[in-house]
Amino acid sequence: MKTLKIAIQKSGRLNEKSVELLKNCGLSFENYKSSLISTVSNFPLEILFLRDDDIPEYVQDGIADLGIVGENVISETEVDVSYLQKLGFGKCTLKLAVQNNSDIQNINDLNGKAIATSYPVILKKFLDKNNIQADIRTISGSVEISPGLGLSDAIFDIVSTGGTLKSNGLKPFADVLSSEAVLIGRKGEESNPLIIELIQRIQSVLRAKE
Ligand code: PRT
Ligand code: ZN
């Protein structure tokens, strides 16, 4: 049977938990910081270590059969993949936030305002759905400093503890999307027995944690 490929984050917030999950599934593999690919010795599986942003497209295009990535990244890249299993880690919420002294109190106050984000696709959908016309400023990082610099009136960003917002003098006022790490697969491959076996192992690891 054809060896499966699973794409996980190379380094960052999801890397460690993704590796731990696969190891807890009884998969045996080397995890060198420098390697981009690792072969599992006791299951027909290869692990690809990638930037999280690339994982949805790799799975959609069939370069990887499976992937572990945040739901926020899947929504932002608008790929067509199947959601196989929520994994219970990497939990966060995409929120709108403003400076503590801002006049903006609810989403309708965003009309005509500038919002900084690294998630323009998700934000645009949310604003359109709520009939709000705002100027989306896409920046790739350090979104939290943009209101203080006068670059935006509000931000739309990932929040987990809220500590980063607080230390930048910001307060959240609307939750838009909650997210956690999920196992995704290429559409049409759901009946592959190796994928079914792997999902069963993952589910029993998750059940044992409950
Ligand atoms: O290098 P690569 O592109 O692979 O990684 P990355 O830098 O794009 O992503 P990374 O490793 O930061 O996050 C990977 C995934 O973890 C995200 O896509 C989310 O699904 C999930 N996740 C969970 C988070 C957070 N929690 C989180 N708190 N991603 C980012 N943050 C950041 C947030 O952007 C903000 O700057 O942490 C800050 C806020 O944290 P709090 O705790 O202060 O609220
Ligand atoms: Zn990324």
From TrEMBL:
Reported regulation of activity: Feedback inhibited by histidine.
Taxonomic source organism: Daejeonella lutea
Gene behind this protein: hisG
Residue ranges annotated for the ATP phosphoribosyltransferase catalytic domain, each copy included: 51-203
Protein name as it appears in the record: ATP phosphoribosyltransferase
Reaction(s) this enzyme catalyzes, per UniProt: 1-(5-phospho-beta-D-ribosyl)-ATP + diphosphate = 5-phospho-alpha-D-ribose 1-diphosphate + ATP
Gene Ontology biological process: L-histidine biosynthetic process
Any GO MF annotation of the entry: ATP phosphoribosyltransferase activity
Cofactor(s) named in the record: Mg(2+)
Protein's pathway: Amino-acid biosynthesis; L-histidine biosynthesis; L-histidine from 5-phospho-alpha-D-ribose 1-diphosphate: step 1/9
GO CC aspect terms: cytoplasm
Entry's localization field: Cytoplasm
